[in-house]
Structure formats: C-alpha cells, structure tokens
Amino acid sequence: MGSMSVSAKQVEVQRIVDVLSKAIAQHRLRPGTRLVEAQIVETLQANRNHVQVALQRLAMQRIVTIEPNRGALVSQPTAKEAREVFAARRAIERAIVESISPRMMAEHAQRVSTHLCNERCATNATDRRAIVRELSEFHLLLGELSGNSVLSEILANLMVRSSLIVALYQRNDVPSCASDEHQEIITALQQGDTDKAVRVMLEHLDELEGQLALDEQEPEEVNLRQALAGL
Q1: Mean model confidence pLDDT for the chain
Q2: What is the domain count for the chain?
Q3: Taking 80 as the threshold, does the pLDDT of residue 38 lie above it?
C-alpha cells in the first residue's frame, strides 16, 4: 500500500480490528484460537503491518493475547476476569440505562422496534450465531441511544470480552440473553420508569453470569480463513 496516508492507514487498521472483533463476538473465533498473521493478510486482503497493528490494538483491549514465540491468540479470560467483566458491565449498563429518557426512546422508536423484531425472529430460528449477534446488539443499541460515546465504547469492548466468557463458560447451548427481558427494559424506558429499567437490567446481567460454569475448558481448533470469510 506504499505511501498510504496516516488517516487511510487508521481506517484500514480499524477495519481489521472490526472484522476480528465481530468474528470473536459472533463466536466464529473461539477463545484460544491462534490468529495466524499470514492467513488474516490473505483472507482480508490486508497489509501485514496493518494486521500487526490491529492485533496489538486488540491485545491492549484484552481481546487478543500476544505470547512470545506463539504469536497472537484469541484471549481466554480466567474465571476471575469473567466476574470482573460482569461487575464492569453492571456499572456501565446501569449508567447507560439511567441516561436514556423517554424522549430519546421516542426519537429512536423505529430503530428499537426493528431491532426487537429482528431479535424475536432470530430467537425463534435455530441459527446460534444470529441469536448471539442480535441479543448482543441490544446492549450495544442502548449504548448508542444513551448518546454517551465513552460509555458506548467501553461497553463495546466489554461485550466482545463477554462473548469470549460465554464461549468458554456457558453451562449449556442455550443463548445467554433473553428477548423478553429486553422488551421489559425497553417498555420501562419508554414509560420513563428508569428505576425499573435499571432493576431489570441488573437482574438480567445477574442471570447471564449465573448461567456460567466458571471453570476452565480446553479451546476447540478453528479454521481461521473460514471464520473470517464474508465478514
């Protein structure tokens, strides 16, 4: 890519970060998967330097672990880190919910309605990745609706890390989020009942954490090219 400008380089690095984060969030790349630079370069038609910068950025976000002589791996959060991520989510998502007014909900009514419809369609079908994507998207949507970009960015990182935790520790194959609780939170926010919205969100996060068996498990082998294809 030769004389690529600084801003163009940043855009390209962010593209790689976004694709890898998305693949991890959707459980296409599981904890412990080796992230072979050459395969990422080939699959994403990317510059090797940009891939290295993207992996370093993900390592700073604790989504990727870079080990001497082994290269980059999808992070494998410990049970302690899993509890800490959920504690952080309670604080951040409480702040997000508290900052959403009925007026904001009215302004984004169509978007919220479309999301809940997509969520119900996904949970009624059997595509696990689609279910995981839509249920996670709900939390990110609330982050955007809050209008607080810092809270939204912190939540985005915590959601990817939560996906790793769910992939490692979930007790069964049932999706870790419930659409009914999401509807209850939305209704409370629309009615201006912030206390109820916060209470349901915190109960919801408690339930998600309660579904985890916080003991270590061996990661499965994953085909990196296949996991990144089409993203």
Answers
A1: 89
A2: 2
A3: yes
